[in-house]
Amino acid sequence: MGNSFTCISHEEEQRPKKSSGGRGKGGGSNSGKYIRRLSLIPSFRKRTLLPSLSCSGSSSTSSSKKGGIKAKKKIRERLHQDHHGHDKDSHIIQEQTLAATNLLFNQTPRSSNSVVPPNFRRSTSVVYPSTQPASSGGGSGPASAVQTPKKSTGGFEMKKVEGSETKRFVLVHGGGFGAWCWYKTITLLEKHGFQVDAVDLTGSGVSSIDTNNITSLAHYSKPLLHFFESLKANEKVILVGHDFGGACMSYAMEMFPTKISKAVFISAAMLANGQSTLDLFNQQLGSNDLMQQAQIFLYANGKKNPPTAVDFDRSLLRDFLFNQSPPKDLALASVSMRPIPFAPVGEKLHVSEKNYGSIRRFYIKTMEDYAVPVPLQEAMIKSNPPEQVFEVKGSDHAPFFSRPQSLNRILVEISQIPSRKS
């Protein structure tokens, strides 16, 4: 009180009390106390505030003033050193935060006048088109590129090749994910000259639909179906799906067989006719304790009724899904993932050899995957054989995070596989 101030220090919590004689009111009880609070509240570490602090019990004598100035100088030096160290520690976090923020901002459709234009309806406009249009070159077929090592620097250079049947990829995310998870794949494919579209399924990404209200695979896949309806009559795409997105892919393949050149399943549910994703995962549920620990069932209609959605325990995301992925991608997923609708997971898929069977299928195995283990991937491949199988070594369940370059090379290679001769 009065002219007494509390001095903030990083080293001492409390010094012995001195006599209160000659002090201002209340000076005897507080003048000798030192508190470590500043080290716990970095936002207060501003050198502009230090001149207002006094470490003396009173300003009545010249000796106490000198002592206060010396103590204040020492505190300023200590705080400056600590603040400099804190800046170093927070620099990486700031970069990662800015990267994730820029990603989400750039992924959100917007106009020059507003972040969300008036004609953008979050519940239906859920396709992120490529920002780079397909280049129109000469020749009989569109050109793409593959990355080959550059001997001089150890980097990569672009090598043009011919023969892609189509230059357009459509990416379908897995359960709980959104179009945001493809940001590395989109960038790499665009650098190869492809046009890329990433779809947000209903209740995912920017969709405003409540996941608990999704009652069918058709409802969940609606944005993907709408995308195919909007394609030109003779336009074809390479359809790529991850995880539960494989079931949505298969549903679209049955409905739009003439618009899909190739279908690529990345550690995805590649279902046989009459099979559901729930049937598939029940095969290995007993042997996957981590899955049971990570899953959180949601009951919007009460626990007497079936669950309406499945969420993930955020504390187990790294171990379950992202055991090989960079920390920044784990952080992005932690704040972006949404629950998976349960009804579509339990719905049996009905496909025909005429439609679904007419499309060339390829499977990409993820070899360090704990969510869809390799034995389960191999069981799907055996029961519903694709044309060709690829492997991404060292990849967790999210190769677009953990091994983006390897995944990209495989996708480009698949795009170059020649068309079947009729």
Summarize the structure.
This protein is α/β, with parallel strands linked by helices and 422 residues long.
Keywords:
422 residues, alpha/beta, seven-stranded mixed β-sheet, three-stranded antiparallel β-sheet, 15 helices, 34% helix
Structure class: alpha/beta
Instruction: Give average pLDDT, whole number.
Output: 74
The oligomerization state is single chain
| N- to C-terminal distance | 93 Å
Low-confidence stretches: 1-66, 82-90, 107-128, 130-161
The major pleated sheet works out as: 7 strands, mixed
The secondary-structure element order is EHEHHEEEEHEHHEHEHHEEHHEHEHEHH
Strand order of the largest sheet: 3-7-6-8-9-13-14
Shape by Cα distribution: globular
Radius of gyration: 30 Å
In total, the number of strands is 14
Proportion in β-strands: 15-25%
Helix count equals 15
Provide the helix percentage: 25-40%
Keywords: Hydrolase
Protein name: AB hydrolase-1 domain-containing protein
Biased composition (Gly residues): 21-30
Organism: Thlaspi arvense
